[in-house]
Design a protein that fits this description.
alpha/beta, 8 helices, 15 strands, flat
């Protein structure tokens, strides 16, 4: 039987988040210490642990069928590789930063400047779009020190919390790209592997939908059911069960996590009582 070959980052936060989503999809992986390849026990899947920057080439060559990788790396090194799914974790920005002491007006300030970066293709494309010419210094590793030692006037790097920039007396001035982890697909994926990918994607979508949703139970007077149902639009309609107390019912539905407090306030204003909100493990629509 064919197996779907997936690449994930060898170590780091993206590795942990990638293994977690596979686990949440019900896939058990036999991980050994310093293993470069591992098999799943209950799904036709092989996991390859690779350096993040090498994954696009493995996808292009068809060594792996799919990969969980940062969108920023795929944009930099993975031209023409398809994104099957955005995964909603490992979010970051690829930004331009300059010393705190310098003033900044617009991207035109980078004209003729020296920029240190590990993302030359991303910077070139961005500056070309803006009509700016700059000199790039390609550095593999920490670039934040470049302005302090006189190597560059600015940097382009990944920004998460901004603490690294702050420690190196830099400030973010241009966000070139908003990035997150994505599920990328090799252009050489076979037909059987494509079918396995569809099964895996179905599981991933169920997990991602659950992560952004909450299960809600509430009690309401029967004459308020119609108004309250309009506030709960995630499913086709809420489940309505009669309570022992005449004239009252229990409504069960789903709400978006990001809208939680606004929805709760609106429900209360429309007569809802005894509201319970619970996490959802999986959600199949």
């Amino acid at each position: 039987m064919k197996k779907l070959k997936i690449a994930i980052q060898k170590s780091g936060r993206l590795n942990e988040d990638s293994l977690k989503i596979l686990k949440d999809c019900g896939i058990s992986i036999d991980n050994g210490i310093d293993q470069l390849k591992a098999a799943a026990r209950n799904f036709p899947l092989e996991v390859f642990y690779l350096r993040n920057g090498d994954i696009p080439q493995y996808l292009r060559d068809g060594v792996v069928d799919i990969a969980i990788i940062g969108e920023n790396v795929l944009i930099e090194k993975g031209a023409n590789i398809t994104i099957a799914e955005k995964l909603g974790f490992s979010k970051c920005k690829v930004s331009l930063a300059i010393p705190k002491s310098e003033t900044y007006t617009s991207v035109q300030d980078f004209e003729g400047k020296r920029i240190a970066t590990s993302y030359p293709e991303t910077v070139k494309a961005y500056l070309k779009e803006k009509g700016v010419n700059a000199e790039l210094h390609i550095i593999n590793g920490s670039v934040e020190i470049a302005p302090n030692i006189g190597l560059a006037d600015a940097i382009c790097d990944i920004v998460s919390s901004g603490s690294t920039l702050f420690k190196n007396n830099l400030k973010e001035v241009e966000v070139m790209l908003q990035s997150e982890a994505v599920l990328a697909v090799s252009p050489k994926i076979g037909a059987e592997e494509q079918q396995l990918l569809q099964k895996l994607q179905f599981r991933i979508q169920s997990v991602l939908t659950a992560r952004t949703s909450k299960y809600i139970l509430l009690n309401a007077p029967n004459d308020k059911i119609e108004a309250i149902s309009k506030i709960l639009p995630v499913l086709k309609s809420p489940t309505i069960l009669p309570l022992a107390e005449k004239g009252w019912s229990s409504l069960h539905s789903v709400i978006k996590k990001e809208d939680f407090w606004d929805v709760i306030d609106e429900l209360k204003q429309n007569g809802a009582e005894g509201i319970l909100v619970c996490p959802i493990e999986k959600m199949v629509l």
